[in-house]
């Protein structure tokens, strides 16, 4: 039986790039789609797109080598925590949907911020600031864009999210590279 700290160290060795890559692809496609559809018609694609990020990640994981789903007996407790954060974000739609029914242009703001909250626990789990930076930068830039460009919220906000994903994916890649360099050094010493 492993200790919680051993499970945490094991989780830290993961790339953690598949979900952000999936999110970046979906938000990019939503931004591009906004050039062709009026804002009123972007509501359903926004719901479908953001709701499909996890499923796209399952597909992408075949190419990245990450295991997003494992048998419950093979799951690390931090894998379960990550899945709980995904569920937490989906529960946030219960705020976004009623608010969106009142004002459809609120959806890029509410869904963009709520779905980014799942990044916060990642900072603690992996001991890296990527989650805090992602969540804060994403939230601040979305709020600024929502007020500055009300006519093009369905365009600016998705591209802001893609920009923030780009920063986070780079951080995660560099972190993973560093973790494996340290692991190689430790193995060589033993």
Assess the beta-strand content as a share of residues.
under 5%
Could you list the spans in which at least 5 consecutive residues all have pLDDT below 50?
none
Cα-based radius of gyration, to the nearest Å: 18 Å
Count of helical stretches: 10
Q: Please give the share of residues in helix.
A: over 70%
- In N-to-C order, the SSE pattern is HHHHHHHHHH
Content-based structural category: mainly alpha
Major beta sheet summary? none
Q: Determine the N-to-C terminus distance.
A: 23 Å
Annotation, overall tally of beta strands: 0
Envelope shape: elongated
Mean pLDDT: 91
In a nutshell, what does this entry contain?
By secondary structure, this protein is an all-alpha fold. 75% of the residues lie in helices and 0% in strands.
Structure overview:
- Helix content is 75%, strand content 0%.
- With 190 residues, it is mainly α.
- Helix 2 (18-33) packs antiparallel against helix 10, helix 7 runs parallel beside helix 10 and helix 8 runs antiparallel to helix 9 (130-148).
- The two termini are 23 Å apart.
- The model has no long low-confidence stretch (mean pLDDT 91).
List the helices and strands and how they pair.
Blueprint: H1 4-12, H2 18-33, H3 43-51, H4 53-64, H5 77-91, H6 93-102, H7 107-114, H8 120-126, H9 130-148, H10 153-189
Helix pairs in contact: 2-3, 2-4, 2-10, 6-7, 7-9, 7-10, 8-9, 9-10
